[in-house]
Amino acid sequence: MPIVIDESNVADHSDLLRSCFAFRRSNADEFILKSEPALQFREVTESGQDGAVRDIQIGQARQDCFDGQGVAHFVAKNGDDIMAYCRLVPTTGNHPGATIYPQVFGIEAYPSGPGIGELSPIILLNDEASHHRQMELCQSMVGEMIAYCKARRIWGLIFTVEASWLTWLLSCGYEIVPLGLPCQVQGKVMVPLRMRVG
């Protein structure tokens, strides 16, 4: 079952959160790294609170400007190893849908507001896990995110996925609406989506 790290428990999981940042940097593909650039880094104090905003790099454990207040991190582990990671970013402040994706997909404005969250792509460990195992991990992550959102009155999610994932999402019974036309980005066909929660 995925672990959720947010403002309520970040002090208890500061080491795991740093490991998540390192995992995110070392396992994300080029599209993710370039679409969520490190515009600025935020130092995290020992208590897990935001410190000074300045360039910082702890090994490869880097935060970016979207790792701010209200963000929830979802991580699936196998023993000590991180197998999958994703984050939920509030759309009431700075989020990729407001700053990056509209340029990529030619969308004037992404949906935003207190009842809408933005999911980053699920990052899976670059190993030899079977496709079936990867789908199980993704389904577990999405299920945990939906439960988290329902408990916090977040009724809509926006995210961007490879077009090949669309069939899987629809087969799971999720109510999904495209926000724009598919677009080829760095050799991958990507599509921006909105999903209804609940």
Can you walk me through this structure?
InterPro entries: Acyl_CoA_acyltransferase (IPR016181). This is N-acyl-L-homoserine lactone synthetase. The protein has 6 helices and 11 strands. Strands 1, 4, 5, 6, 7, 8, 9, 10 and 11 form a 9-stranded mixed beta sheet that branches. A two-stranded antiparallel ribbon has the order 2-3. 30% of the residues lie in helices and 28% in strands. With 198 residues, the chain is α+β, with helices and mostly antiparallel strands. The protein has helices at 14-27, 30-35, 96-99, 101-105, 131-151, 163-171, and strands spanning 3-5, 42-44, 50-53, 72-78, 81-90, 116-119, 123-124, 156-162, 175-178, 183-185, 188-196. It has a single domain (3-196), classed as Gcn5-related N-acetyltransferase (GNAT) (Aminopeptidase), CATH 3.40.630.30.
